[in-house]
Specification:
The chain is an alpha+beta fold and 544 residues long. The chain folds into two domains: 22-186, Immunoglobulin-like (Sandwich), CATH 2.60.40.640; 201-238 and 246-455, Immunoglobulin-like (Sandwich), CATH 2.60.40. The chain has helices at 3-14, 208-213, 231-238, 384-388, 397-411, 436-439, 462-476, 490-494, 525-536; strands spanning 37-44, 50-51, 56-65, 69-70, 72-86, 94-108, 126-127, 130-139, 150-152, 155-167, 178-186, 201-206, 225-228, 252-259, 263-265, 269-277, 282-298, 308-323, 329-337, 353-364, 428-429, 445-455. It is flat, with a radius of gyration of 37 Å. One of its GO terms (cellular component) is cytoplasmic side of plasma membrane.
């Protein structure tokens, strides 16, 4: 052995080993690497449940120690925080956020006080080696700063439980020995039944020559706004030559969009009624494109940096537009559906991010425009047969619309039948949708966007409650008969979707129950024979 190796060995034996005083980082798995704690985890009694405000989260904190330990505390926190990633001026995304609320409680031990300085070294508490379970029951807070859990690419609102082991002493909360977290989900109910009814929105399209002849006061009518086409679009309309005999004042197209409610809950179907008043006959297999889109705005955090805006089309419905050549009017109802995995409208913390939903209605008023999907499939090619049959006196409105709709569904690969009114969702698309932003750049394409609030529930209004009570009262007053159908009670009227399919079939009444003690069984053969003769003879014998 060389002198250098001997010197290194003696030097290493003289240098004391450093002890690790840093806090061990933990996770929901709970496996920690330190000299005291072997494992620390949080187990929820209902791990897959979604909690609401003012509900209790029940579970256990499990602590496994390697050896006997004294003077320690076990603290449990309930935390809600919002985080957002901002791009800023550089390509590196910065993360910022804040804690919305925090609640803390001690499952074991106590907080350090100044009076304990006199009794340094005194054993206050202790736990033996092995596994220890600490049950807890914490209430979810309710108030303005409580929001539903959500997560997307640029941010999140997260709720979690945090448990940490502390050595009792000064600043014991800031320097825990070990720590673990367990996330849970919270949903804040948003009732859309309290929102006011939606107003009818209108768009009026007029040619440039018409605008010059209309008086100034005529523009202030029921229209929400006035769209004036350019001279180029006016020349393109006049170049068609089909309506050259019409006056310039009559070249007006009015589009009305009516949505029954201002808000819809998750999973509900949204009916959109679109009415078009034209000045000539018109037909296009993809004339109405209705899209439910979500607009996300992410705040950058700086005063000079603008907010980032992202759009996502959730679902879409495409319908043909057919204007009656007699009345020059078209009335269609298109349906959308709020997906189950959508989250509610969020606008409370605009400095971080917001989510708003819009129903965008795009009307294609040009027979030359071809509608393409995102995969570059043409689904809106005008049909020469349909256009030729739109002459006055040679058209069947219902048959023409059904024919166009069937042809359109075959184009997009949907085998649903148009005559099936019960399957509304078959005409709603969630992928390979039409790029409406690109379509709106074409000529003679217009539309509007109507903001819609997305909530979680729709409570029953007072009018609906009165109707249900009146229906139950009428049902109870019906006369009884042996073939009276099954009559639902007031509770079954409310939940009529729970009734079976055969509930409206007439059934005879159920036989009454007879106890066995009241059933007389005749075992004597003479009695049986006497009863048989009594039924056959007109004057049965009195003796037997």
């Amino acid at each position: 052995m060389s002198l250098l190796s001997v010197f290194k060995k003696e030097r290493d034996s003289l240098i004391p080993r450093r002890k690790s005083h840093g806090a061990a980082t933990g996770s929901s798995s709970g496996l920690l690497n330190n000299n005291v704690v072997r494992q620390l985890i949080i187990e929820l009694k209902e791990p897959h449940r979604i909690w609401k405000p003012d509900e209790y989260v029940v579970g256990e904190a499990i602590l496994v120690l390697k050896k006997d330990t004294t003077n320690l505390a076990l603290r449990l926190r309930m935390v809600s925080e919002i985080r957002v990633k901002t791009s800023g001026s550089t390509t590196v995304k910065k993360s910022r956020g804040e804690r919305l609320f925090e609640r803390s409680t001690l499952l074991y031990g106590e907080d350090y006080s100044e009076d304990q300085d006199k009794d340094k070294g005194k054993i206050t508490n202790g736990l033996t080696k092995g596994e220890h379970r600490f049950p807890f029951r914490m209430k979810v807070r309710s108030g303005r700063k409580v929001f539903s859990s959500l997560e997307f690419e640029r941010g999140s609102i997260r709720h979690y439980l945090q448990c940490q082991v502390e050595n009792m002493g000064p600043k014991q909360e800031e320097k825990p020995v070990s720590c673990c977290e367990q996330a849970f989900f919270v949903i804040v109910p948003v009732d859309v039944a309290t929102l006011p009814k939606q107003k009818t929105r209108r768009v009026v399209l007029q040619s440039a020559s018409t605008v010059r002849q209309v008086p100034k006061g005529l523009g202030d009518g029921s229209s929400s706004f006035l769209t004036r086409t350019t001279n180029k679009s006016s020349n393109s309309n006049s170049s068609s030559g089909s309506n050259s005999e019409l006056n310039a004042v009559d070249k007006t197209v009015t589009i009305s969009v009516n949505i029954s409610h201002s808000g819809y809950s998750i999973g509900e179907i949204i009916p959109i009624n679109v009415s078009v008043q034209h000045y000539k006959s018109f037909c296009h297999p993809a004339g109405l494109i209705v899209t439910l889109s979500r607009i996300c705005r992410v705040g950058s955090g700086g005063k000079d940096e603008p907010m980032e805006t992202f759009r996502k089309d959730i679902c879409q419905s495409v319908s043909p537009l057919y204007v009656d050549p007699t009345t020059f009017h078209s009335n269609s109802t298109v349906y959308l559906k709020v997906p189950i995995d959508a989250f509610s409208t969020f606008t409370s913390l605009s400095k971080y991010f917001t989510f708003q939903y819009y129903v965008e209605v795009v009307v294609n008023l040009s027979q030359k425009n071809i509608v393409f999907t995102e995969s570059n499939r043409a689904i809106g090619v005008p049909s020469d047969t349909a256009l030729s049959s739109s002459e006055p006196g040679k058209t069947n409105i219902e048959g023409n619309i059904n024919q166009i709709q069937r042809k359109f569904l075959n184009m997009v690969g949907n085998d649903a039948s148009v005559a099936d009114d019960n399957d509304i969702e078959s005409n709603i698309f969630y992928r390979d949708m039409v790029n409406v932003q690109k379509l709106k750049r074409q000529n003679n394409v217009t539309g509007m966007s109507v903001e819609t609030i997305i909530g979680t529930t729709r409570s029953q209004s007072k009018c609906q409650t009165i109707e249900v009570e009146q229906t139950a009262q009428v049902i109870n007053e019906l006369p009884e008969s042996p073939l009276t159908p099954i009559t639902p009670s007031a509770k079954s009227v409310i939940n009529d979707w729970l009734m079976p399919a055969y509930a409206d079939v007439n059934y005879p009444p159920v036989p009454q129950y007879t106890p066995n003690s009241e059933v007389h069984i005749i075992e004597d053969k003479k009695e049986l024979e006497h009863s048989r003769l009594k039924q056959l003879e007109s004057d049965p014998p009195t003796d037997y």
